[in-house]
Specification:
By secondary structure, this protein is mainly α. The chain has 29 helices and 2 strands. It has a two-stranded antiparallel sheet. The longest helix has about 40 residues. The radius of gyration is 27 Å and the shape is globular. Helices cover about 65% and strands about 0% of the residues.
């Protein structure tokens, strides 16, 4: 109880977030994640609906919390007044919230919308953008589309019209247009584009294009093996196969399990490992390029002054107005990656109290412009990796919230720096893997989940690591033919080792129910042999699920 009170007193935003249930808290953190927070929150709602079928987001509870009154001290006279929690959220969060409500308006109860609109109107100095979004929402509720308010003033409309005319005068030459407008430059493979600035120099784009071409050539090479592998799996059913029941020693088991899938399957698993290894090398090269081009330089004096100020603000748990980041935090955009590592050491971010870590992550989420991939990866390593590796009990609420906020903003650096390191640690700890499962279930998009799966598939699976694989399959992450074949191969190889494991049985059951359309005749035969070895109470359920697949 004392710990909770200290958190409440230390950070007003943390205190507000604690009032909400888990799903509402995640939604608010997503709305605070940046200018695209509304779309990110919309995808999060869709994802939760697909995972928990029939269970919708509780807008009633969410609205009640946002409209509840909170005592605050008004500046400059320190007058105590009551305000809705909605008005205490950062302006960016409010904008994203009303943008989200415009998207999902048909699914939100009208009384909830009315309460939120009423609470928002109590702001004596409303943000103009929030006000316009609120007017649009009000017009939609009253079904007066012909009275839809105009978002732009007449002056803005004239300026926009002039800008459009100016742009159209350059459309005669595409090359000339691309030189004049940076936002027309076509982005490279999104897997290799950092989550940072949208506008980038020509040299940066050329570097990324080179890395992208490497990745695409690897994908083409792997794609060529798919057709032959699938033919092999389909035709093996008609050939005599050694049964897994006759397995004696562990080495014999592995040999027979590999033979049941044929040499092509072995090549598939090898190619997956090679591709994942090369993909890691590309990621490491992106992160490590600074070691060649950015020599370690001493931190300039003005940056050191900012560090001292940031230390004071962290100790005070200072919340900037309107959910912005302190101006001093811009040194993260100004410094080189090498200098950033030194800055993290000077700020002692890996050792600071978790409430200060949460405050720092709130600033990072609000920072504009966003950080590039290399810097985000360095922060993910410095802020979270040592703390996660040292966990011996369930992670605290401030730490978990800070990690989820950072992951929502910079998911790929978390996958490549934190999650990949955790799944590759020999004898992974249960608490660490629980945290990975939480990130998979609540934060990651399908692209990042596939990246996590490519890391998981190439390491030996333990009983605890099965829970991570199970979380990925529960999310129905779309797998390529190679990854899916490697998954089935792994499961069949481990059939005898995990014959009494309920985690393993649940994993097979999820595979049979969530991926019915991906299971071929070859898969069915090998899975049948694996299920014959199972000794858990779920054996009959597994065989019934397999029978449903074969009867399709």
């Amino acid at each position: 109880m004392l710990g909770e009170r200290s958190i409440n007193m230390a950070s007003p935003m943390a205190s507000l977030l604690q009032r909400f249930d888990n799903s509402s808290r995640l939604l608010i953190c997503t709305l605070m994640s940046g200018q695209w927070g509304a779309m990110a929150a919309f995808r999060a709602l869709q994802r939760s609906l697909s995972v928990e079928k029939g269970r919708h987001f509780n807008w009633q509870i969410f609205t009640e919390k946002l409209c509840s009154q909170e005592p605050v001290l008004e500046e400059p006279n320190k007058t105590l007044t009551m305000k809705p929690v909605l008005m205490l959220l950062p302006v960016l969060c409010q904008r994203n919230l009303f943008s989200l409500l415009l998207i999902v308006q048909s699914t939100v109860p009208k009384d909830c919308l009315s309460c939120l609109l009423q609470a928002s109107r109590k702001d004596p100095n409303p943000d103009l953008w929030v006000q316009r979004l609120r007017d649009l929402l009000q017009a939609g509720m009253e079904e007066r589309s012909f009275l839809t308010p105009v978002l732009l003033s007449s002056t803005c409309q004239q300026q926009l019209k002039h800008l459009c005319q100016k742009i159209m005068t350059h459309t005669s030459s595409n090359a000339n247009l691309e030189r004049k407008l940076n936002w027309l430059v076509k982005l490279e493979n999104p897997c290799l584009v950092p989550a940072g600035n949208t506008f980038q120099s020509g040299s940066q784009i050329r570097k990324k294009r080179k890395a992208s071409e490497e990745s695409l050539s690897l994908e083409e090479e792997n794609r060529r093996t798919r057709s032959q592998l699938e033919i092999n799996l389909e035709t093996e059913v008609s050939q005599p196969q050694p049964e897994l029941q006759d397995v004696g020693t562990e080495s014999t088991k592995n040999e027979l399990a590999l033979n049941t899938f044929g040499k092509e399957a072995i090549h598939c698993l090898s190619s997956i490992s090679q591709f994942s290894f090369k993909e890691d090398e590309v990621e490491k090269r992106i992160v490590g390029q600074s070691s060649k081009h950015d020599t370690a330089t001493e931190i300039p004096g003005h940056m050191k002054n900012h560090i001292s100020k940031l230390k004071e603000l962290l100790e005070m748990q200072f919340d900037c107005p309107n959910g912005t980041a302190p101006p001093e935090l811009q040194i993260l955009n100004e410094c080189t990656p090498d200098q950033l590592e030194d800055l993290c050491s000077l700020l002692k971010l890996s050792e600071c109290p978790e409430t200060e870590l949460l405050q720092f992550c709130c600033w990072i989420v609000a920072l504009s412009p966003e950080l590039g991939y290399k810097k985000a990866a360095i922060l993910a390593e410095k802020l979270f990796l040592p703390r996660v590796l040292s966990l011996i009990e369930t992670a605290s609420w401030p730490f978990t919230t800070a990690l989820m906020m950072f992951c929502s903003k910079y998911p790929r650096p978390i996958c490549c720096t934190l999650i990949s390191s955790l799944v590759q640690v020999p004898g992974q700890g249960l608490e660490q893997l629980r945290l990975v499962c939480k990130l998979i279930e609540e934060c990651l998009e399908p692209e990042c989940m596939r990246l996590v799966f490519s890391h998981v598939i190439k390491v030996p699976w333990t009983e605890d690591l099965l829970t991570v694989v199970h979380s990925l399959l529960e999310r129905q992450v779309e797998l390529s033919s190679e990854l899916f074949n490697a998954l089935v191969l792994n499961l069949c190889q481990m059939a005898q080792r995990f014959e009494s494991s309920v985690h393993y049985a649940k994993l097979i059951l999820t595979l049979l129910t969530k991926y019915q359309n991906d299971i071929t005749l070859g898969h069915q035969h090998h899975l049948s042999c694996a299920l014959d070895l199972n000794k858990t109470i779920l054996k009959k359920s597994l065989q019934a699920a397999l029978k449903r697949v074969t009867s399709r």
